[in-house]
From TrEMBL:
Keywords: DNA-binding, Transcription, Transcription regulation. InterPro entries: AraC_XylS_family_regulators, HTH_AraC. This is AraC family transcriptional regulator. Pfam families: HTH_18 (PF12833). The keyword Membrane does not apply. One of its GO terms (molecular function) is DNA-binding transcription factor activity. It comes from the Bacteria. It comes from Virgisporangium aurantiacum.
């Protein structure tokens, strides 16, 4: 989930999403094309996915900065990356891929090491990163790019042993409950002790079950705020004790107030770029390419 410091003019941005058929489990993607030269200054907010960004721009492209580290080009952003910004200017294209932690563990094989940081895709995939970029650049359309990306990601999904089924189940229950589930109850459901679930979940996904639940709950609340719901009702709907509890959690994850999250520019089109993951909108069933957003 991205919010902008200098908002892009969405009238100059085309957004493309894959057709519903053929989507890989735990993986979603969207393509962005900025048709006019403009300054981009993007601040990243915590989201319950590992993010893979493939910069398909001509020229210098975007520069990413977090914790004093700079990267250019294709990057992988782990869970909870902290204060991260992307800056650039000009006409550009970018493929953004969101990997739920279970999928990230298989596709990247480094989810634990990635948590809380950002690395270049080459550091994770080696020469395969350059080959993937070349194939995506040569594609004639976004539909072709999505097909190529699904083939690459699908091959990697099948090449590594999956995480423990108990860990995968715990993540899915956390996501579907929107973070309103107790770790002790999940341990009972999978037949593990709380200590074992905590250890295996953290070692395989790079985050503790409790932290994962807080992150998922925050994400749901952020979308409700962006949809125009009042903070008090969002606190109740999202399972916070009260509005002050919501305020503290939003500040902890986003460094912003609930009012600032509510007007985060990127969230204004979040249900367009990520229709299947929006808690307030139904999935897109037609018109999968959306252009000239206004």
């Amino acid at each position: 989930m991205l919010s902008t410091g200098t908002p892009p003019d969405w009238a100059w941005v085309d957004v493309a999403v894959p057709r519903p058929s053929g989507r890989l489990p735990g993986i979603s993607m969207a393509g962005f094309r900025q048709r006019g030269p403009a300054l981009v200054d993007i601040a990243m907010v915590a989201h319950p996915s590992v993010t893979l960004l493939v910069d398909l721009s001509e020229g210098e492209g975007l520069v990413y900065d977090t914790h004093g580290r700079h990267e250019r080009g294709n990057v992988v952003i782990g869970l909870l990356p902290g204060d991260l910004r992307a800056t650039g200017r000009g006409v550009g294209e970018c493929l953004q891929i969101r990997l739920e932690p279970v999928a990230a563990a298989a596709v990247l094989g480094a989810s634990t090491e990635l948590s809380g940081t950002m690395v270049s895709l080459e550091d994770v995939w080696g020469r395969d990163a350059g080959r993937a970029e070349d194939r995506l650049r040569a594609a004639a359309s976004w539909d072709e790019r999505f097909t190529i990306a699904e083939e690459i990601l699908g091959r990697r999904l099948g090449a590594r042993p999956p995480v423990d089924s108990e860990v995968a189940y715990t993540w899915r229950r956390t996501l579907t409950s929107r973070g309103r589930v107790r770790v002790d109850g999940l341990a009972d459901e999978v037949g593990w002790s709380r200590k074992r679930l905590w250890s295996r979940f953290r070692s395989q996904l790079g985050i503790t079950p409790k932290r994962a639940a807080r992150l998922v709950r925050f994400d749901h609340a952020a979308h409700l705020l962006a949809a125009g719901h009042a903070a008090a009702s969002v606190a109740t709907e999202s399972g916070y004790v009260d509005q002050s509890h919501l305020y503290r959690e939003v500040k902890a994850f986003a460094g912003l107030t609930p009012a600032a999250v509510a007007v985060a520019p990127w969230l204004a089109i979040d249900d367009v770029a990520w229709p299947a993951s929006s808690p307030t909108r139904s999935p897109v069933t037609g018109g999968e390419h959306i252009s000239d957003l206004r």
